[in-house]
């Protein structure tokens, strides 16, 4: 009888250890997955999967003639007016605000993606993932007034898909 109790206790200890290791593995795996996901991906009322992966200002595209907001608080280096937007297009620029909002529209459905990019050391950037239904549209960046919530420092450019 003592031998069976010992085996039962050893079996329970092994089972608890295996469960602990599995739980730890899943927690680490989930943490790594969450680091690669983006909180800025599409926020849209349309059935779309367009969005941006926030590169935290680490990716930029040089431009000698960037689009600027009227106050120059936001400067959009990429894309430029008339650009063809495809998956992997780099969005980049400079800003004196802490965050830059973006909105992607096409001529068939309207808003197909929107969200916010962080400004890090005066720069913002992201890698675009887009699923457009139309052949042309607009790409917009702007900031919001914290007191009123209204859009400011707007830049709107025409793009194709």
**SSE sequence, one letter per element:** HEEEEEEEEE
Outline the biggest β-sheet: 5 strands, antiparallel
Shape: elongated
Uncertain regions spanning at least 5 consecutive residues: 31-48
The CATH H-level superfamily of the largest domain is Immunoglobulins
**Given the helix and strand composition, which structural class is it?**
alpha+beta
The total count of helices amounts to 1
CATH architecture field of the largest domain? Sandwich
Q: Termini separation (Å)?
A: 75 Å
Rg measurement, Å: 23 Å
Strand order of the largest sheet: 1-7-4-3-2
Average pLDDT value? 81
The third-level CATH topology of the largest domain is: Immunoglobulin-like
* Highest CATH level, the class of the largest domain: Mainly Beta
Helical proportion?
10-25%
Number of domains: 2
Share of residues in strands: 35-45%
User: Total strand count, please?
Assistant: 9
């Amino acid at each position: 009888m003592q031998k069976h109790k010992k085996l039962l206790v050893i079996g329970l200890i092994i089972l608890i250890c295996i469960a602990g290791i599995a739980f730890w593995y899943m927690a680490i795996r989930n943490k790594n997955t969450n680091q690669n996901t983006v909180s800025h991906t599409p926020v849209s009322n349309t059935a779309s999967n367009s969005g941006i992966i926030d590169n935290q200002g680490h990716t930029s595209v040089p431009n000698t003639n960037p689009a600027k907001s009227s106050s120059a608080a936001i400067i959009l280096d990429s894309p430029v007016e008339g650009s063809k937007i495809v998956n992997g297009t780099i969005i980049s620029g400079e800003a004196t605000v802490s965050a830059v909002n973006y909105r992607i529209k096409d001529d068939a459905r309207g808003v197909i993606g929107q969200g916010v990019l962080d400004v890090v050391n005066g720069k913002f950037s992201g890698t675009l993932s887009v699923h457009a239904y139309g052949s042309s549209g607009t790409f917009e960046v702007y900031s919001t007034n914290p007191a009123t919530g209204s859009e400011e420092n707007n830049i709107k450019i025409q793009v194709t898909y």
